[in-house]
Amino acid sequence: MARGISVEMERFPIAGTFTISRGSKTEAEVITVTIAEEGRSGRGECVPYKRYGETMEGVRAAIEAMHGPIVAGIDRTALLAAMPAGAARNAIDCALWDLEAKLTGTPVAVAIGALPARPLETAYTLSLAEPEAMAAQARANAMRPLLKVKIGGDNDMARIRAVTQAAPNSRFILDANEGWAADNIEANLAFAAEHGITLIEQPLPAGKDAILRQIPHPVPICADESVHAAKDLDALVGLYDAVNIKLDKSGGLTEALKLRDRARELGFGIMVGCMVGTSLAMAPAVLLAQGADFVDLDGPLLLARDREPGLVYQGSLVSPPDRTLWG
Which residues are named in the active-site annotation (predicted)? Predict the structure, then answer.
């Protein structure tokens, strides 16, 4: 029986407003791909990201352009060569993984060696705001062991001080989203170290981060926008201490597994992160993140409404996906 494919653009409201250094959003815009074969179907979700020149319409068009190869039976390995890394390939790749699991009866966790798949402690993200407002967010989530703080602008030291004082028992990741510059990074890093920060994500713009090779790293620095696929890693040795792997950047679980394994070979710490999406987008990432140093898969916790069934979150612990959701 030939394969069939459907593509759907969906929107899920965010609980409030989510703000980073590049702007704000009030809903998660996602694209869901369903591939059906022999009475079974597999699903994958992606989140187009403007930072990489992606739009909802453009990503949908890129997926629909693959209709012929998908119906003809393209496999995940051939997909890597047929499409560039990015959201469109991610949705197709994850749908193919899910479909394969449904057709063979072999769970994805078994196929990728992620057993026993355990609940993971995920970071919880605090939206960028003025220091007092960020302190209130931190105070409201002070019971969470790991908080990720969006920064990347003027007054970041005040923000760092505010959140660490408001949640003294939490560990903190700072995510600057490329918002620092060569003239402030050393002072910001030193201030972060003084306040016990655990990790700092992408402080400088991708491609403008050579200074990281010359300055001290009193807090480990994690590449995000600077790393998409395994081929990017060699150039990052000596610049970064860890890498943030996101399925929407790598273009799916297939490439993300290669990226993770190569990063480990090169001595990088591993973080598995996400865009703001639903449990369907997080599910494969939870399996990828088994054994990761840092997990940032809180997308559904930021939504006013998630898919049903969704992932099970208990506080900051996220459980592996039930196979009715994915995998």
Answer: 150 (proton acceptor), 246 (proton acceptor)
